[in-house]
Amino acid sequence: MSGVIKVLKLDGGPDRRGLDRGRALVAGGAGFLGSHLSERLLADGYEVIALDNFHTGKRYNLAGIARDASFTCIRHDIVDELPADFAVDEIYNLACPASPPHYQADPIHTFKTSVLGSINLLELARRHNAKIFQASTSEVYGDPLVHPQPEGYFGNVNTHGPRSCYDEGKRSAETLFFDYSRTYGIDVRVARIFNTYGPRMQPDDGRVVSNFVVQALRGDDITVYGNGTQTRSFCYVDDLVEGFIRLMNTPAAPQHPVNLGNPVEFTIMELAELVVDYTNSPSRIVHRPLPVDDPRQRKPDISYARQYLGWEPKVALSEGLARTTAHFDALLGGRRFVAPR
Ligand code: NAD
Ligand code: UDP
């Protein structure tokens, strides 16, 4: 069901439209990344319309901007026809559950979100000659056989496993974006995002950083899946949002997806030990079965972003974990069992 859940144009909050950067639509704007991006766009002088079905997004993610005169949030599922023919200058498509437990809960809807949702937004871009950004993912590389992963690597993805709804949905969306660009001349920007973390991840999100930090703060067992030798490279949310803005605003649209992520690689066991150490937690590290098709290694080659966007991450994992722990600490309130050092 669609509906405007808040339009506050008359009272409270700064109106920055004097800066006149135009109107941006952020699909998935109530989510972890979408809420940070919406905040950044408002600060940069855009009017922002967030579209979200609130599957994993939360109203309280928008608490800091809900009263901003230039912000509107509309409850809407992008699989369905858009509730209005919004006149927009820029579109950011971040709508899609990103955590394996969430995207696997309704895999057909996840796939539709990437495919039908992208078509709905691409058609909107086409009608208004708007620039459009797609949040793609390092999951398009699957369980990569090339390491680190450059954009030219085509990936190693299972087409019919439990992760396929997400991986293949995102791969199909990339195809759609570049076909719309070639067919209709639309300006598309596609980012392949590697594991990103930070404040506003949900405590029950299911991804590794939020799981480990919440488990450590609660004094619960820290659940390492498999033997923990699989690797990931963790990017702090502010760094990623800066990458989004640079990719969207670079004058010549790259004619291919662009990797955005932090190239410093950790094993999952190293991450668990870091979190235990940082939070001074009494938690034990325990092992649970490795999920099917869990990629064994992942690290972005960000040469393109460095050279053409002048972008690279600045926030080290230790600093990002400190900020993320502070977020979960506040969220858990009195239910927290251990104190940070
Ligand atoms: P998230 O789950 O916090 O945010 C996704 C948002 O999209 C939520 O607000 C959710 O309610 C909304 N949504 C989901 N399906 C929708 C639909 N059909 N219609 C409208 N809204 C819908 O996850 P996130 O980490 O903020 O991810 C944002 C985007 O970035 C996703 O597209 C994800 O695939 C991509 N991405 C994220 C990461 C990461 O590490 N955070 C990595 C790779 C790609
Ligand atoms: N993981 C883990 N314990 C958890 C959650 C995840 O060991 O409680 C592992 C997971 O198996 C994977 C890595 O951490 O190897 C990253 O998982 P996440 O779901 O965060 O992201 P993705 O697998 O999509 O990269």
From TrEMBL:
It comes from the Bacteria. The keyword Transcription regulation does not apply. Its cofactor is NAD(+). Pathway: Nucleotide-sugar biosynthesis; UDP-alpha-D-xylose biosynthesis; UDP-alpha-D-xylose from UDP-alpha-D-glucuronate: step 1/1. Transmembrane segments: none annotated. Keywords: Decarboxylase, Golgi apparatus, Lyase, Membrane, NAD, Signal-anchor, Transmembrane, Transmembrane helix. It is a single-pass type II membrane protein. InterPro entries: NAD(P)-bd_dom (IPR016040), NAD(P)-bd_dom_sf (IPR036291), UXS-like (IPR044516). Its main location: Golgi. Residues 25-323 form the NAD(P)-binding domain. Pfam families: GDP_Man_Dehyd. The keyword Transmembrane applies. Belongs to the NAD(P)-dependent epimerase/dehydratase family. UDP-glucuronic acid decarboxylase subfamily. This is UDP-glucuronate decarboxylase. The lineage of its organism: Bacteria, Pseudomonadati, Pseudomonadota, Alphaproteobacteria, Hyphomicrobiales.
